Amino acid sequence: MNFDDMHVLAKRIDSQIRSLETKVSDPMSMMYSNIFGQGVKVLSMLKDTIENIGRNKKEVEHMIQEENSSFDCLLEDFNTVNRFKSEVEVFLNDCENTWSSSFSDYKPFISYDSSSTTNKGLNGFSDLSIQDDIQIADQSLNDSLNNITMS
Description:
single chain, mainly alpha, 4 helices
């Protein structure tokens, strides 16, 4: 192939490329206008599907970010509550220590230990004489009523 033949071939290729560029300004419209190329329509549908998948992926990523941020907020709230609980337990233990050092016969009713949250010492009610307390309360009420009626 000599130079002139190559030049003619290059011009022909160039003109074909230019004609294709003018025909295919919008490649999707060409795909739908091509009656014989069913594969082209499938490619267009695949492109639409890919776009839908991209949108769905972005929505899922956004939902995951929202869930992560709400979980972070819940975790922060949980940690705040735990810190507050620890501070209260320390304060209550200090109060218990103060009372036990001030009063030798003082017995703590509930243990404020963070390792156990069960109420210990509830069986201490069996040591109390509830009848005596009721009689004292009744006597106090009667005394108050007598004072009111006397005055």
